[in-house]
Amino acid sequence: xxxxxxxxxxxxxxxxxxxxxxxxxxxxxxxxxxxxxxxxxxxxxxxxxxxxxxxxxxxxxxxxxxxxxxxxxxxxxxxxxxxxxxxxxxxxxxxxxxxxxxxxxxxxxxxxxxxxxxxxxxxxxxxxxxxxxxxxxxxxxxxxxxxxxxxxxxxxxxxxxxxxxxxxxxxxxxxxxxxxxxxxxxxxxxxxxxxxxxxxxxxxxxxxxxxxxxxxxxxxxxxxxxxxxxxxxxxxxxxxxxxxxxxxxxxxxxxxxxxxxxxxxxxxxxxxxxxxxxxxxxxxxxxxxxxxxxxxxxxxxxxxxxxxxxxxxxxxxxxxxxxxxxxxxxxxxxxxxxxxxxxxxxxxxxxx
Length: 352
Known about the structure:
Blueprint: E1 6-8, H1 17-23, E2 28-33, H2 41-54, E3 60-63, E4 65-67, E5 70-71, H3 83-92, H4 94-114, E6 119-120, H5 144-160, E7 166-170, H6 191-195, H7 198-205, E8 211-214, H8 231-241, E9 247-248, H9 256-259, H10 264-274, E10 279-280, H11 285-294, H12 301-308, H13 326-351
Parallel strand pairs: 1-2, 1-10, 2-3, 3-6, 7-8, 8-9
Antiparallel strand pairs: 4-5
Helix pairs in contact: 3-4, 4-5, 4-13, 5-7
């Protein structure tokens, strides 16, 4: 059996018989976990062990675990700083900021790997922009070259912990105000403007990351389809111009930003035709069942190779073992110090 092109989810803290049947389907290639699936490290490790035992090759297990407000596992995990905090450390001292970014990337990946998760959908490569409600402090910086430098360090940390990296949201989500979870955003800039701002960080990171996730945004000056459904963006720009050689993950097909493309089967078909390798469908069990009954897609051998690169590297160990790891202890100390400094800074701002 090979890994299929669909990544989906399940409800609850453990798998039931229906979950196991669905996840054993040949179209399934991975599972994305959410906070509802998590109670504590021991529980989630039992879940990931069972998920990996279901199939050969093993299903990919992913999670959105960036830090700040996007961190699915809390109890028993380090509270990770938002990307913008790493960017502020970089602004104060670039060398220290890059070292801190690498520490954060390593710690995030090491903790997830210790409970059997293969990869996180990180880092965010979007540019910081006050207009963007959905990106906001999830971005490292407003300067694309700074984003690239910080993200390189963060990815280096992830890789040293045995985790592949996924850059998002190609070609850049930070400029639009609308939230693609709730509506379809439109970015009316020219390709020239995008290429000379948002796209720079993706261009510079393309050789070093294993995955990319396009945005559910329409850039009408380039193409009338949202980026994840656009062969112009995925095949022409990402694959050819940027020479990206990894996996292209669609953003969640259940988001409002994807709904205008058509029904769930049509969305999946268009995303695959546009060049996405893996399609995500979350919080929609009926839609998942509809895809398993009515959708088909051939997974090319090169895609299988790329998918295998997304598996975690090395033995995951156990999270309690990290307590004896000097690198983990140092990273936790530095993160706590940064949190404390930022809280003091916030206090000063409020007093002023």
